[in-house]
Automatic annotation (TrEMBL):
It comes from the Bacteria. GO terms for biological process: L-arginine deiminase pathway. CDD domains: AAK_CK. This is Carbamate kinase. The keyword tRNA-binding does not apply. Residues 4-287 form the Aspartate/glutamate/uridylate kinase domain. It comes from Lactonifactor longoviformis DSM 17459. The keyword Kinase applies.
Length: 313
């Protein structure tokens, strides 16, 4: 088997929803990742942070309510916190699994990663991602007037804060990430899509936004000249006509066909669509690049061509 450079984008289901769940989940996650490393592949790990950043955001909001001297914590700082503690659990689990298999010469590290977005990205005009807890109309009005947050009714369960989801333009720490990868380390980077920042002169200013982790992982894979982008999700393969009588699982997709299915509305926005879009972007960016969408525990079989949905030129 040819040795590949692989960027893995871990979904939330690979990390659990609470601290104890995460400690248990990363042990299973580490086994699947080390399976690939043991085969000689070079692996870089990116991950989501939906439940985790929500938990941190709620905790910091509670702190500011309890202590008037504590200002509101910016979302960008909450993302940084989530990167560090998810990375801490992941790198320890990966190191332990490597050592369990007698592999003691591959260091594992987490890079707290900033990702630049455009301040004039149209996404800022239409915040679409709900975060934080549900509030009453009165509570939402108070938060909106106090912090300037965009508060909207969500799913008939109350009001939540909505933030923008702009496209990633630049991975600020890419030079450091590349150096670590080239030296043979397993690197965890771009957690939660990266800490969203805009460039103001030479200053990087945190943005009230969340970056889609699949798009950030795609950019990371392109910047590192990876052979594979593996996007892990809750299903083994991508399907068209999902949930209908004529549902069809897809094993092998050319970029043009995948693009056509996406344009037809075959993939749900906010779930499978960004994964397929990121896969198309990566696979079409250079000859020899392949994207794979599958389950965590099927990643090794997917690389071997036994399962999952492969998207390529």
């Amino acid at each position: 088997m040819n040795k590949k450079r692989i960027v893995i984008a871990l979904g939330g289901n690979a990390l659990g929803n609470t601290l104890p769940e995460q400690m248990a989940a990363v042990k299973i996650t580490a086994k699947a990742i080390v399976d690939l490393i043991e085969e000689g592949h070079q692996v870089i790990v990116a991950h989501g942070n939906g439940p985790q950043v929500g938990m941190i955001n709620n905790a910091m909001a509670a702190l500011s309510r309890e202590d008037s001297a504590q200002p509101n914590t910016p979302l960008s700082v909450c993302v940084a916190m989530s990167q560090a503690y998810i990375g801490y659990d992941l790198q320890n689990a990966l190191r332990e699994e490597l050592w369990n298999r007698g592999i003691k010469d591959i260091p594992v590290s987490t890079m707290v990663t900033q990702v630049r977005v455009d301040a004039d990205d149209p996404a800022f005009l239409n915040p679409s991602k709900p975060i934080g807890k549900f509030l009453t109309k009165e509570e939402a009005d108070t938060v909106a007037s106090k912090y300037g947050h965009v508060m909207r009714e969500d799913a008939g369960r109350g009001y939540r804060r909505f933030v923008a989801s702009p496209k990633p333009k630049e991975i600020v720490e890419i030079g450091a990430i590349r150096s670590l990868v080239e030296s043979g380390e397993v690197v965890i980077a771009c957690g939660g899509g990266g800490i969203p920042v805009t460039l103001q002169g030479n200053h990087l200013k945190g943005a009230s936004a969340v970056i889609d982790k699949d798009f950030a992982s795609c950019l990371l894979a392109k910047e590192l000249d990876a052979d594979y982008l593996i996007i892990l999700t809750a299903v083994e393969k991508v399907a068209i006509n999902f949930g209908k009588e004529n549902q069809e699982w897809l094993s092998d997709l050319k970029v043009e066909q995948a693009r056509q299915y996406a344009e037809e509305g075959q993939f749900a926005p906010g779930s499978m669509l960004p994964k397929v879009q990121a896969a198309i972007d990566f696979a079409s960016s250079k000859e020899g690049r392949t994207a794979l969408i599958t389950l965590l525990e099927k990643a090794k079989d997917g690389i071997a061509g036994k399962t999952g949905t492969l998207i390529h030129k």
